Amino acid sequence: MGVHQKKIAVHDLEIGMFVSDLDRPWHQTPFPIQGFHIRSQGDVRALVSHCKWVMIDVAEARESKELKQKATAPFGRKVSRRGSGREELQLPPLSIREPVEYEATTTLKKEVKASRRLLDDADEALQRLFLTLRAREVPDLKPIAAITSKMVDSVIRQPDALLWLSRTRQHDNYLYRHALNTSVWALVCGRQLGLNEGLLNHLGLGCLLSQIGKTALPAELIRREGQLSADEYTLYRSYVEKGVAMLEGSALSRAVLSVVQGHRERHNGSGFPEGVRGDRIPLLAKVAGLAEFFESLIEPRAHTRAMTPAKAVTLLYEMRNIEFQEDLVESFIRAIGIYPTGSLVELTDGQRGIVVSHLPERRLWPRVMVMTDAGHQPLKSAKVIDLAKFNETGEGGEPLVIRECLPHGTENLDPARYDVTGGESRWNLTRLING
Hints:
four-stranded antiparallel β-sheet; five-stranded antiparallel β-sheet; single chain; 18 helices; alpha+beta; Hypothetical protein af1432; 3 domains
């Protein structure tokens, strides 16, 4: 059988394909051999985090036809090829009924202080809920609903505070962290869309409950979520239906249940459990699905390499009208920025730090808490630089911008060592943050 190569975008890769070449030198990637079969979702994620396109060996891919038929494509995609190899679906722009225009009513400093305990309370409430469900007892959802209301209030007052807290705190339990962070991303996006407070509560609660079906799956399966075999992934996909079944008779609103049921559906019909597409996916489920997907790309896991937030934003932008509706993607990016809160970055002068917040009109110039000097040595006290003000005033002479987004766990970048709310700092963080 003859063999020829075909160029393909990395997010069109499927389990069973044979990757024969990359868009960059092999030694610049973590792949130990030159040329390999894609055996797991982890292989796909690794390729997505390093490359934009690859060359596949077409004959080799055909020889793994049986494996491919049993497998599900990356991120739940069933690829229908057209033109560039990805099915696109265009819909009329989103129409939000009576959108609300929110304004920040407090500073980041004050809201971080006010909400610092909130995510800890959310952890405790989720832990109790998950333990109840594992014991197959009837859950009390009132504590989770109360937490959701407080989260909505915080995001309405100041959208960057919960993002900062969720991105810089440590947590060992993946399910709790994933549900919480997904909820925060979704609420920030919903605020940008102008969803009213009631809809934001439905959205946030649905996101917090969206992962409960995973409590019915083997713990080892969840631990290796990014590296599943075809059969394991089939079982994994059942978590959505299991979660919906657990919530039957709970008196939750249809809007909340639509988030739990529809957060893994995709714009072009490539999702699960029902494979619905376009305007058949409820709006809140669309927002939740986008937020959950983004969180899955950037969250650190033991067996998968996390993307930098900037790369994840780029990937989302490339997936407009494919897996996610175009104007929803654009609203999400406007809400979180090109360099989202919590992104580790290096500036053009060599200093390194973490993004504290951003302004929608200055997405490339966020506020950065600098934690190292130009030689990458940790500072005794952090300093917050508002890149927009720094560059607009011209005080520093040469423009100061972000050179690159750094991976999670970069040496000497531990925001827990510093106090973004002010504290004892020779740089007067209170003035810099509020200035």
